[in-house]
Request: fold
Amino acid sequence: MGLIMYDVVIIGSGPAGLSASIYAKRAGLSALTLEQNPMSGGQVLNTYEVDNYPGLPGINGFDLGMKFREHADKIQCEFKSSTVCGIKKVESGFRVETDQDEIFAKTVIAAMGATHAKLNLPGEDELSGKGVSYCATCDGAFFRGKVTAVIGGGDVAAEDAVFLSRSCEKVYLIHRRDELRAAAVLQKEVMDLPNVEILWDTVAERIEGNEKVDALAVKNVKTGKKERLSVDGVFVAVGIIPFSDIIKEVADCDERGYLIAGEDCVTGTPGIFAAGDIRSKKLRQVVTAVADGANAVTSVLEYLSVS
Ligand code: NAP
Reply:
């Protein structure tokens, strides 16, 4: 049997990967989407509620992910469950090495996504989606008039505190040091807000609650003083980890591990495209991920037409 050379292999089946699969199929490309597990689906499947995807207010994350998947299945996109171990440049394209075999493609769309760093606190996993969130712009609206805590001191933590302060009665910003890492302009903005209280030199020790979050246990690392804050929500903003290890050898990442590519999803390596949360960009949401999938395929088409 002759070697199959796909026009495009899409790695990842979250919103970016599924959007790319749909666009590639509709464009008439021979495309294979690789996913780690059958219907991997990405972070959206674990999101309790998505209230900012236009046209589907309040949809459950799992349902939204499944709708994307049903769409791809309906138009007969090709999927394969396997774990990608490495990607190598070969003369006519790329060799994608998986735990089962090798797949050849003229182009690769990397849509492996990213994950929010966790604190691994007691209660964090158990109460995830029940008051513990890793995305204020996604979940903040559920805490209108409530008391929330943001953990972290970077740009995301400061932006989250500012965002939440607009709808929450009170926001605690909990940072382990005595100065924020966030940009100066953001620091000023957050410090000027009357309903944001910054707890310096403070670490979270435990998130408490049964069916939902009701308190956060914290400790001042300088004085040793412990406190139990009554809160309805805890936003963890201690960094993001992109799943880019398998592609680092063939495409450039920034210092945080994101694949460097603009809105057209074109990386510095001809034939490799980056879509979704793995791409260096400002806003990581379902709506921007699906846009990337479409843009990546458009760039693949342009690349194939000239190469
Ligand atoms: P980040 O800049 O890496 O900040 C992570 C924060 O979490 C730091 O303040 C860090 O504390 C804290 N942290 C990490 N591990 C912790 C732990 N185990 N316990 C307690 N605190 C912990 O990450 P980010 O805020 O998610 O931002 C990611 C990137 O996106 C950054 O490059 C950021 O500049 C960029 N970004 C830019 C903008 C913008 O330009 N408007 C907006 C959003 C994000 P320490 O400070 O003590 O290390």
Q: What stands out?
A: Residues 286-306 form the longest helix (21 residues). The chain has a mean pLDDT of 95. The chain has two domains: 5-116+240-306, 132-236.
